Amino acid sequence: MAAILELQDVHAAYGRIEVLHGVDLTVPRGAVVALLGPNGAGKSTLMKVCSGRMRATSGHVHLGGSHVNGAAPDALARAGLCMIPEGRGVFPNLTVAENLRLSGLAGQATTAQIYETAFTRFPRLAERYDQLAGSMSGGEQQMLAMARALVTNPAVLLVDELSMGLAPLIVRELYEVLAQIAEQGVTVVAVEQFADMALAVADFAAVMTHGRVVAFDEPGVVRRDLAELYLGGDLGGDLGGDLGRAMPV
Ligand SMILES: Nc1ncnc2c1ncn2[C@@H]1O[C@H](COP(=O)(O)OP(=O)(O)OP(=O)(O)O)[C@@H](O)[C@H]1O
């Protein structure tokens, strides 16, 4: 499978403190990749670098074979990469309809096309067309964030902590939608604390610790490796409660 997103020796820092220490990651076109790892491993930072919200201090980011280091988020969105940030990225004081109209590439689609894309996938949003986004439930807001991403017709969708603050049942529902989106050919990279939710829909799992990707394999293999490492105590402290609990130890 050809790579659609490729990172080579990517370093990134907040001020003088480097938090990505040479990330290598190859995301095959059409795959769903779960990006796992303990708190502070650098997963969100990596998502920010991939989506142009943060600049790598060195290394290479390629999207569809083009070098995209330093490209702005809107340029990357036009090139087919869209990110749903941690904490959803909806405008709470705007209605559902307004949020959709303001989505990344809205200028390229008619309002009718935008609504059709969003409401076909998420009928619940159609019922709440005029409701302020901030007054919806957490799950509905996450649906709106996903819908906003979808109307940009992305080739690559980056999702940071889909499960943030949501009940497991709703998270499962959202991952099912993500799996359907992936079935239509969208490449997905999902950062997730609840490893088992993401692994259930993933083709591959990447594990980050201490600012590097330390494992990349099929979910079953990564699950076993993580469990062994966890039992062995090597990564135990690092894995954190959620990932540790999610692993079959
Ligand atoms: N805005 C920031 N300024 C300074 N340091 C930051 C900032 N954001 C993150 N960091 C630090 O960078 C490191 C990596 O953080 P990051 O959020 O990328 O990790 P993560 O793997 O996504 O963690 P989590 O699972 O807890 O969200 C951490 O040590 C964190 O404290």
CATH architecture of the largest domain: 3-Layer(aba) Sandwich
Number of domains: 2
Mean pLDDT across all residues, rounded? 86
How far is it from the N-terminal to the C-terminal residue, by CA? Answer: 32 Å
The helix/strand order is EEEHEEHEHHHHEHEHEEHH
Major beta sheet, specifics? 6 strands, mixed
Tell me, what's the shape? globular
* Strand composition percent: 25-35%
How many beta-strand elements? Answer: 10
Low-pLDDT runs: 232-249
CATH top level assignment of the largest domain: Alpha Beta
Which ligands does the model contain, each kind named once?
Answer: adenosine-5'-triphosphate
Radius of gyration: 18 Å
Count of helical segments?
A: 10
Protein name: ABC transporter ATP-binding protein
Keywords: Amino-acid transport, ATP-binding, Nucleotide-binding, Transport
Domain ABC transporter: 5-235
Family: Belongs to the ABC transporter superfamily.
Describe the protein.
- Keywords: Amino-acid transport, ATP-binding, Nucleotide-binding, Transport.
- Residues 5-235 form the ABC transporter domain.
- GO terms for molecular function: ATP binding.
- The structure is a single chain.
- The chain is of the alpha/beta class.
- It has two domains: 3-80 and 154-246, Rossmann fold, CATH 3.40.50; 91-153.
- The chain has helices spanning 43-50, 73-78, 96-101, 111-121, 123-127, 138-150, 168-183, 195-201, 219-232, 236-246; strands at residues 3-14, 17-28, 32-36, 58-63, 66-67, 81-84, 156-160, 187-191, 204-209, 212-217.
- The strands form two sheets. Strands 6-7-8-3-9-10 form a six-stranded mixed beta sheet, sandwiched between helices.
- A hairpin with a 2-residue loop joins strand 9 (204-209) and strand 10 (212-217).
- Helix 4 crosses helix 6.
- The longest helix is centred in the last third of the chain and has 16 residues, at 168-183.
- The chain is globular, with a radius of gyration of 18 Å.
- The two termini are 32 Å apart.
- The structure holds adenosine-5'-triphosphate (ATP).
- The site of adenosine-5'-triphosphate (ATP) has 10 residues, from helix 1.
